[in-house]
Amino acid sequence: MTLFWVASIILIALSGVLVAWPFIKRKENNDEALRDELNKALYKDRLTELEVEDEEGLMENQQELIADLKQSLLDDIPTENQTAAQSNMNPWLVIVPSMLLTVVLSYGLYYKFGAAEEMMEWQQVNENLPALSKKLMSPEAAALSEDEMQDLSLALRTRLHYQPDDATGWLLLGRIALANRAVDTAIGSMDKAYRLKADDPDIMLGYAQALMLSQDDIDQDKARSLLGKLIQQNYMDVRVFSLLAFDAYERKDFPAAIRYWSIMQQMIGPEDERYEMLGRSIENAKKQLGDSSTVGTSVAVTIDLGQALGQGITAQPGAALIVSVHNADGSPVPVAAARYPLGTFPRTVVLDDSNSMMQGQKMSQLDDFIVRVRIDNDGNVATKQGDWFGESKPAKMGQSVSVIVDGQYQ
């Protein structure tokens, strides 16, 4: 709003200069002097003519004509009162009222026919952009009201007009479009964000969400590819598995849908209100498969570092995270295992029957199990010296477990 006031004051000042300029630069009114000079010139010319006529004998009353000519010259000279009245006129009597009229008309007409209220609202929306953006970025984005969505959309479009390379801005605009079910806008915004910052997990997830709403098979395939990359990067977000489960169910891949919903259950825990809803979805998918079908079970493992590791670990370039599932009796032979990049902690990984290691035995067939985690410092499974490790307490199949890595092989 400051810019508006500055610009309006500058324009009014320029208008005032234009009004006052003729008075500031005006010169003395020389019309009377010029007329007097002209009369004198005409007088002299006429005298010359009279002399010529007198010499030619064409004139009898030369002196009378000369007297009349002088009287005419005197009658045409302006009085001192007229000249003083004109010269004593105060220019500010014109400048001040003109300036006041300009100011009153300018702001009055703008208030009546302009967009003063809309401008103030726009400025207020721009000021609220950080708070609204933070609110939208949270998982509880549904808490935004319809008016807040409109305000945020306006502010984002304004910012993106001046900062088209703002990937976060395009991501937020895409999320607003997703909330409003504006599929084309959502895909377009997310695509721009992805092109600007393709390695951002939040942008990848948002782009996948938008593509999943498309009716184009190519878009949906791209969405599955993005979600697969997120899982490979250990981006354990409930929304990733929710999208995969919904997509699998729509494609009638019920075992995959059940697996993803089961993973979600393990991630959120029974205390979450969504747990029972996921259970109903699983039961519905099982009914679609029939009673004779068997569905694999997954295990979600949350891994964190113990205090002995301080602020972190110093690992060699080939370091890896190895997670294995064993019988509850502590058998050294893993039933299932997976290897991941070291990454950051805390983190959650999920193992299922696809990670089974033993011929003829699936991980889902275990009743009780334990999970062992090892940070392989040199990337060589055969060597253990200097590696860190941790082990979970026994758990029932279907339960999620936590492992603290706080031991070290000597």
TrEMBL record:
Gene3D superfamilies, per the entry: Tetratricopeptide repeat domain
Entry's transmembrane regions: 92-110
Cited SUPFAM superfamilies: TPR-like (SSF48452)
Gene Ontology molecular function terms on file: lyase activity
InterPro entries registered for this protein in UniProt: C-type_cytochrome_biogenesis (IPR051263), Cyt_c_biogenesis_CcmI (IPR017560), Ig_CycH (IPR056412), TPR-like_helical_dom_sf (IPR011990), TPR_CcmH_CycH (IPR056413)
Coiled coil segments of this chain: 24-72
Cytochrome c-type biogenesis protein H TPR domain boundaries: 119-275
Keywords: Coiled coil, Cytochrome c-type biogenesis, Lyase, Membrane, Repeat, TPR repeat, Transmembrane, Transmembrane helix
Any one Gene Ontology BP term: cytochrome complex assembly
Source organism superkingdom: Bacteria
One of the Pfam families matching this protein, by short name: Ig_CycH
Protein localization: Cell envelope
GO-annotated cellular components: cell envelope; plasma membrane
Domain annotation Cytochrome c-type biogenesis protein H Ig-like: ranges: 300-405
NCBIfam families: cytochro_ccmI
Name of the protein in question: Cytochrome C heme lyase
